[in-house]
């Protein structure tokens, strides 16, 4: 039986129901593989529209990236607006960029509508480590405003001191529509809402085989589900179940640590307004406070999702560089999780064999986009596929180097971008 990884989130999980193992042959309208945010958002949006949904989860609800992430509600894809505008035709770019803010609104609506207790806090900062990054943030603000996000404030180096207790940054962009959450508790709240609407969820029920057809059937070790539509939402944890959707993306690991609870005074010194922070580097660091005043700090990428030998040894120096006040502080939790990287760094949504949909590849920023994905899927299955198709029309490429060399090649590419960040070029 696969349990949650030993994280701060698993240690502070809300009381919740245990979901059964699938031990039957069932039928439904839509069967969803994976109970992360992609699968849960899909199931919830579909159940709200009256679909009979079944979610099959290999381990526990929120077992994957969803229950391990930094909890940052980031209003962007993993590509900035200017890159999207340059890369895609005007109609597609316009459609993609006008949806950029929607995921965070969906999260706030769900929290309110289903009364989900998940420590929601408003406000996120993108911090600049050099003046080039600060100039880029100014451009980004203008770009976002063209698509309707007017809740942004540029903060100078001096102004930023009221938000983050460090002198490593030279400015920031404050997004008042960003914020942070306890992601595992959000996922559990969404699961509860799905059940409340008549949906079914099964845990410890790994899908091992897909039988394609006019009504696809998925098989687990102890049961099966026949559906009108199948949704693959296993992201970096999907493995070889559907090679067609995995061959243009690579799983990557990223690590998180959580300190012991800090004194209120120290927590307020680090983040006086309790906003979350992510920096502008290609290999970025991100951090925030938890509701019990721990600093939760994440960053770095391990291409190919190998487990590093010591997460603390990797992460502590980064944290202490930003906050020397935390030198030697006890670290209570360390964990790792996998996200799915695409070559374009845009998410991969699509459909094959007419009735098998997939949602994956958020490339590190998925808390908001997974929620958008579920809404778009529900729109597509009710005859309004235009917005889903804006994503599905994006071309995706295999990483250079083939199966054998794509991981070292990608790591070399990232090292180059990392160097550019350090040299501010
Ligand atoms: C450490 C870390 C920190 C992050 N921080 C942030 C952040 O702060 N902000 C942000 O926006 N994004 C962040 N991300 C990215 C974000 O968490 C992900 O993009 C998002 O959670 C992906 O959700 P998902 O549902 O697509 O995949 P997952 O949450 O990984 O869920 C996939 C689920 O599918 C299940 N599954 C797989 N195969 C099968 C099968 N065959 N049968 C049944 N079930 C199956 C898995 O067990 C898993 O539970 C972070 C990611 C990581 C790893």
Q: What would your notes on this structure say?
A:
By secondary structure, the chain is α/β, with parallel strands linked by helices. The chain is 34% helix and 25% strand. It contains 14 helices and 17 strands. Strands 3, 4, 5, 6, 11, 12, 13, 14 and 15 form a 9-stranded mixed sheet that branches. Strands 1, 2, 7, 8, 9, 10, 16 and 17 form an 8-stranded mixed sheet that branches. α5 packs across α12. The chain is globular and about 60 Å long. The protein starts with 7 loop residues before the first helix and ends with a helix. 49% of the residues are buried. The mean pLDDT is 93.
Structural class: alpha/beta
For the terminal residues, how far apart are their CA atoms? 48 Å
- Counting DSSP E segments of at least 2 residues, the number of strands comes to 17
Bound compounds, each kind once, are: flavin-adenine dinucleotide
CATH topology: FAD/NAD(P)-binding domain
Portion of residues within helices: 25-40%
Largest beta sheet, briefly?
9 strands, mixed
- What integer is the average pLDDT? 93
Count of discrete structural domains: 1
User: For this structure, what is the CATH homologous superfamily?
Assistant: FAD/NAD(P)-binding domain
């Amino acid at each position: 039986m696969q349990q949650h990884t030993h994280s701060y989130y698993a240690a502070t999980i809300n009381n919740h129901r245990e979901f059964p193992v699938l031990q039957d042959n069932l039928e439904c309208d839509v069967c969803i593989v994976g109970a992360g945010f992609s699968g849960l958002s899909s199931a919830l949006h579909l159940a709200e529209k009256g679909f009979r949904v079944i979610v099959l989860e290999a381990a526990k609800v929120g077992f994957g990236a969803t229950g391990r992430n930094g909890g940052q509600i980031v209003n962007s894809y993993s590509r900035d607006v200017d890159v999207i505008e340059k890369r895609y035709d005007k109609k597609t770019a316009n459609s993609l960029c006008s949806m950029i803010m929607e995921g965070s609104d969906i999260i706030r609506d769900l929290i309110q509508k289903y009364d989900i207790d998940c420590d929601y806090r408003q406000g996120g900062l993108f911090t600049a480590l050099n003046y080039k990054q600060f100039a880029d943030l100014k451009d980004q603000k203008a770009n976002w405003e063209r698509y309707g996000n007017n809740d942004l404030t540029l903060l100078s180096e001096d102004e930023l001191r009221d938000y983050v207790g460090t002198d490593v940054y030279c400015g920031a962009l404050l997004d008042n529509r960003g914020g942070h959450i306890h992601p595992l508790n959000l996922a559990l709240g969404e699961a509860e809402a799905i059940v409340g609407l008549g949906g079914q969820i099964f845990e410890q029920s790994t899908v091992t085989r897909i039988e394609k057809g006019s009504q696809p059937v998925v098989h687990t070790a102890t049961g099966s589900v026949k559906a009108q539509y199948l949704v693959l939402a296993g992201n970096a944890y999907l493995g070889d179940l559907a090679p067609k959707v995995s061959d243009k993306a690579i799983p990557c690991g990223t690590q998180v640590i959580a300190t012991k609870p800090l004194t209120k005074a120290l927590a307020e010194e680090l983040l006086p307004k309790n906003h979350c922070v992510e920096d502008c580097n290609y290999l970025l660091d991100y951090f925030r406070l938890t509701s019990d005043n721990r600093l939760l700090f994440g960053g770095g990428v391990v291409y190919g999702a190998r487990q590093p030998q010591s997460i603390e040894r990797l992460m502590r120096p980064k944290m202490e560089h930003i906050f020397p006040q935390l030198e030697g502080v006890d670290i209570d939790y360390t964990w790792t999780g996998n996200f799915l990287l695409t070559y374009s760094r845009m998410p991969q949504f699509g459909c094959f064999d007419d009735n098998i949909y997939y949602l994956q590849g958020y490339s590190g920023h998925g808390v908001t986009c997974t929620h958008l994905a579920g809404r778009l899927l529900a729109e597509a299955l009710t005859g309004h596929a235009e917005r889903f198709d804006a994503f599905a029309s994006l071309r995706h490429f295999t990483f250079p180097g083939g199966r054998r060399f794509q991981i070292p090649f990608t790591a070399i590419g990232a090292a180059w971008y990392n160097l550019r960040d350090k040299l501010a070029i």
